[in-house]
Amino acid sequence: MASHSEPLYFKRARQNGHIVVSDPPKFDLDAYIANYKGRTIFDRLFLIGSSSSYLYSEALKLAIKDAKAGNDIGRYEAATAKLHEIVPEDRDGIPDLAWVDKTSKRNKIDTDRLEQELKRYKNNLIQESVRLGYDDLGDHYHNIGDLSNSHKAYTKMRPASTTSAHILIMKLRLLKVAIDQQNWIQVQTNVQSIRQSGSKQPEVEKVTAKLSTAMGLASLASGNFKDGAKEFLNTDPRMAGAKMDGSDEESFNEVVTPNDVAVYGGLCALASMSREQLQSRVLDNSSFRNYLELEPHIRRAISFFVSGKYSSCLSILENYKSDYLLDIYLQRHVDTIYYEIRTKALRQYFIPFSHVTFSAIAAAFNTDEATIESELTTMIKKDQLDARINLVDRVLLARKQNPRSQVHADALALAKDYERTAHLRVLRMEILNAGLEIHKAKRRNHDDGGGWLGNAQDGSLGNNIAGDVFMPTMGKSLRSAFRSG
Q1: pLDDT, mean over the chain
Q2: 138 burial class (0-12, 13-18, 19+ CB within 10 angstroms)?
Q3: Residue 36 — pLDDT band, cuts 50, 70, 90?
Q4: Which of 217, 320, 397, 474 has the maximal Cβ count within 10 Å?
Q5: Is 394 helix (H, G, I), strand (E, B) or coil?
Q6: Exposed (0-12), middle (13-18) or buried (19+): which is 91, by Cβ within 10 Å?
Q7: Which of 90, 89, 60, 52 is nearest to 77 (CA)?
């Protein structure tokens, strides 16, 4: 299969600026997809089939099989259409119209049945039955691919939810739908709502790993790698040991696996953290170590970066780039993440030097001088590197700082601060000499029939009244005080 010619579809996609992966990935497709369950299986297979000129046929046929095993007609038609577009002569790309018609009728019958049951529950005024009716209807819409109506059905569970556990179930359902829709603002809203509802509740503690992962995905999707790294690194380690068969409630493989958490967290950390932070927050993080052990190459890459072996770190990342480009959440951000890691490595490498030749940098990063020159020029133009380039001698020069001018600036700032402090102290002395200091009002005895003006702890009311009394005369008194002084 490695020697086959690339279909015309991928050549056109590459010309149109779409991501096309020609190299074979390091994972086995069957073993890779077996780690997931639910709708993410189709999503991942369809992305691989649309982006990989090496695995497109196998991935799309598996996607068709997965869609046909469910009730989502739209997904089945999308997968068959994509395979027919890439390989028109493949018979698997011809949709099974009989199955489509049969499944469509069955979906309509199930929808009508569930709506009638829900209507009966409402008439009987049994709140728990109404809640379960909306839950079943939301699951049904989710299974047939109608995510909008699924979200509406889950939302209507709220009035019938009488316990905190019921409310948590509803919010988790909404979170799952929002992730499937890739509505990341809604994902963040749901996560914050669950966290604020009671972080000490046992039900919430069991899903903290899911919440951290969901928030990390939302940050990753928005390009906020720093917050994404923070969330992934704080993911509860119990998810790493959860069973993948769906029987463990701490498992989240309908969205991501523990291996994904290690990859996402490691890459976001490399793109946004300093070497000291990588050591303390990643490598020395006992909780995240459970995830790093699942992806040892990520741990090696981070260790190489921390120890200053940037070429080895970048080489490891480059070897796994094909895998990351076929990931549903990473694909759009791989180039940006790799650019951030590489530019940070260049900055770290240059810190000890006052000047360094292009040839030395190229040797350290295992590349040629032309590439290094282009990268350094881009970084300087974007103010990502405080340096200059000598194209005659092909040397990168650090900008010289003038310590004398810095000392003068610090001394001037210190003098201004001293002058301001002295002025305020003289002003306070004159106010005290003029007897204009306002004291807190004392509490009056309620038995005397009087009210009170503030108290020892809070003199705000007394001060306000005192201010109203003394403010008209303060200006005149200050002027006389300064004249007498």
Answers
A1: 85
A2: buried
A3: very high
A4: 217
A5: coil
A6: exposed
A7: 60
Q: What is the pLDDT of residues 196-209, one digit of tens each?
A: 876 556 778 888 89
- The predicted structure's pLDDT at residue 34: 92
CB 460 within 8 A of CB 454: yes
Six-digit token string for 174: 């909404």
Is residue 354 within 8 Å of residue 397, measured between CB atoms?
Answer: yes
Nearest to 462 by CA among 444, 443, 441: 441
pLDDT at position 200 is 58
Q: How far is it, in rounded angstroms, from Cα 263 to Cα 321?
A: 12
Look at residue 465 in the predicted model and tell me its pLDDT.
38
Rounded to whole angstroms, the Cα distance separating 113 from 360 reads: 73
Distance separating alpha carbons of residues 313 and 303, to the nearest angstrom: 8
What is the C-alpha separation between 157 and 142, in angstroms, rounded? 15
Cα–Cα distance for residue pair 333/325, rounded to 1 Å: 9
Contacts of 333 (CB under 8 A, 6+ apart): 220, 223, 225
pLDDT at 105: 95
Q: Quick one: average pLDDT of 61-73?
A: 94
Helix (H) / strand (E) element for 63: namely helix 56-68
CA distance 156 to 254: 23
Q: Which of 243, 211, 213, 233 is CA-nearest to residue 37?
A: 243
Q: Which residue has the higher pLDDT, 380 or 419?
A: 419
Q: Give the residues across from 356 on adjacent strands.
A: 396
470 compared with 363, residue with greater pLDDT: 363
Residue identified by tokens 């702890």 is 457
198 and 163 Cβ atoms separated by less than 8 Å: no
Tell me the sheet residues that pair with 395.
357, 390
Give percent of the chain above pLDDT 70. 87
Dist CA 127 CA 124 (whole Å): 9
More confident: 389 or 71: 71
Specify the DSSP class assigned to residue 388. Answer: E
Asked if 298 contacts 288 with a C-beta cutoff of 8 angstroms, the reply is: no
Strand order in the sheet with 395-398: 355-357, 395-398, 387-390
What is the DSSP annotation of 183-219?
-HHHHHHHHHHHHHH-TTSHHHHTTHHHHHHHHHHHH
Q: Which of 391, 401, 387, 340 is nearest to 369 (CA)?
A: 391
Poorest-confidence range of 100-104, 306-310, 439-443?
Answer: 439-443
Report which of 63, 71, 130, 137 is spatially closest to residue 99, judged by C-alpha positions: 71
| CB neighbour burial string for 428-461, b if at least 16 within 10 angstroms, e if fewer | eebbeebeeeeebbeeeeeeeeeeebbeeeebee
What pLDDT was estimated at residue 456? 42
